[in-house]
Write a structure and sequence with these properties.
heterodimer; A: about 35 residues; mainly alpha; 1 helix; about 0% strand; B: about 270 residues; Four Helix Bundle (Hemerythrin (Met), subunit A)
Chain lengths: ~35, ~270
């Protein structure tokens, strides 16, 4: 893999990890708020 | 942002302090984080020139270094919040929630830091991993806080959980300065600090420095935004655990079948 390949892999993985983490928090908050009495 | 200390709550009132920031403030921070992240992509991937020796692999540093900074910041906030919880005059479950929320963010950014360092090490060092003091102490840091998060899920009352987790967080934080100074104290493959070196003489300039600082700013704003969201989740989890515990006690009192043990999950 070229240097550019490693760079793209690193940036894409970072974006995906942060986006998935953000969405998982939002999803868990919505689920928690729906289950509130 | 209203500082947690300003809406101080007692342990007898765990549902107080349900949010760290007003929704509009969180939205503003979120938008600013998105704008600076977009600026980071443009400056880090296009505007900044390739490094003379490392070539384009250097561009991984614009996210690797901010991720490391965020790990320090997140674990620092966890340590300070834990100390504030343990200090009788400032004791509040708000600090415990901040500590737990910040620790999880710190673990995410430490994992990213290790992963990005590995992706950078392969083309520049020729290896994915080296048993180097900086790398090993950072991996230890990751597992220490993973243990802290596991400790938060051990069933207990909120006060007991908060106290033992606060002590664990302060012990785990000892590794943060060891990580930072590892490159100074031991002979390592990892380079010494470029910006926060012992002489405080940043050996970086121009667009490369700009990309690095935009990265630090973007990740810090993202941290503040996510911390507020994660704090809200802590509150909801505590409420759910409390409801489940009350239901289990009610069942037991009425002689019904025992439910599963309720944990103070985060």
């Amino acid at each position: 893999m070229t240097d550019v390949g490693y760079v793209i892999a690193g940036w894409v993985i970072t974006a995906v990890v942060l986006a998935v983490y953000w969405l998982s928090i939002l999803w868990r908050i919505r689920r928690g708020e729906r289950s509130e009495p | 942002m209203s500082a947690p200390g300003t809406d101080m709550v007692s342990d007898a009132d765990p549902r107080s302090g349900e949010r760290l920031m007003a929704p509009v403030a969180r939205r503003i921070v979120g938008v600013l984080a998105l704008v600076t992240l977009a600026a980071l992509v443009i400056v880090g991937l296009w505007v900044a020139p390739p490094d003379e020796f490392q070539g384009d692999a250097q561009r991984l540093m614009y996210i690797h270094v901010p991720a490391a900074w965020l790990a320090y910041l997140a674990f620092g906030v966890t340590a300070v919040s834990s100390a504030l919880y343990l200090w009788p005059r400032t004791r509040s479950l708000v600090w415990d929630r901040v500590a737990g929320a910040s620790a999880e963010l710190g673990v995410v950014f430490t994992a990213l830091c290790l992963l990005l360092g590995s992706l950078w090490g392969r083309p520049v060092w020729g290896v994915w991993w080296a048993w180097d003091a900086r790398l090993v102490t950072t991996a230890v840091l990751f597992f220490l806080y993973l243990g802290y998060l596991a400790l938060r899920r051990v069933p207990a009352t909120l006060d007991v959980r908060a106290k033992r987790c606060a002590i664990a967080a302060l012990i785990a934080f000892i590794d943060v300065p060891i990580v930072h100074f590892s490159v100074t104290w031991w002979r390592t493959l990892h380079q010494e600090a470029t910006v926060f070196n012992p002489e405080l003489d940043a050996e970086i300039h121009g667009t490369m420095a700009l990309a690095l600082w935009i990265g630090v700013l973007a990740f810090t704003l993202l941290y503040v935004y996510l911390l507020d969201l994660r704090y809200r989740l802590e509150v909801l989890d505590e409420d759910r655990d409390e409801r489940e515990l009350e239901a289990a006690i009610a069942d037991r009192v009425q002689g019904g079948p025992p439910r599963e043990t309720v944990g103070a999950s985060s």
